[in-house]
Write a structure and sequence with these properties.
About 80% of the residues lie in helices and about 0% in strands. The chain is mainly alpha-helical.
Length: about 160
């Protein structure tokens, strides 16, 4: 029975990480930030990170999100008590998916700014709900909070410099 539970837990971990990574990768493909002449021509602040940094940062953040979700999913807390955590996580992941599309594909930094602020609020709400179930899961989302906070300020700066 224990071996079956461990196997199930490993599959949950793989599914959780892959789901987050696939959502992020798909959003990036649709948003198509690479070789985007509109973005390349925007005036950027001196502290704008180099483009090669984004893929490894996001890959790491999606993996941490997946692990955090897995810790909630496998937790023995009754499913009814996890619903708010699941919902907050799903909403923030959807908002995360949409940001690249709004910013890069639709070239709408103002609407992307509004959206990323909603995303940040939902990430914080997710951290709050995760903390009630697993402090470790909540802590794993702190780098995500920090990066999206930075990205929000960068989004604002890009909008203010160019519009």
């Amino acid at each position: 029975m224990r071996k079956q539970r461990n196997t199930s837990s490993i599959w949950k971990l793989i599914i959780a990480i892959l789901a987050c990574e696939v959502i992020g990768f798909t959003s990036g493909l649709i948003g198509s930030a690479a070789m985007n002449t509109w973005f390349d021509n925007l005036q950027k602040p001196s502290w704008n990170p180099p483009s090669f940094l984004f893929a490894p940062v996001w890959t790491t953040l999606y993996a941490l999100m997946g692990i955090a979700f897995w810790l909630i999913w496998k937790n023995e807390t009754p499913e009814a008590n996890k619903r708010s955590a699941y919902l907050a996580f799903a909403i923030q992941l959807f908002l995360n998916f949409c940001w690249s599309i709004i910013f890069f594909k639709f070239q709408a930094p103002f609407f992307a700014l509004i959206e990323i602020l909603l995303l940040l609020a939902m990430i914080l709400l997710t951290v709050y709900h995760f903390a009630k179930i697993s402090k470790t899961a909540a802590y794993l989302l702190i780098p995500y909070v920090l990066w999206v906070s930075f990205a929000s300020f960068l989004n604002y700066t890009l909008w203010s410099l160019n519009y």
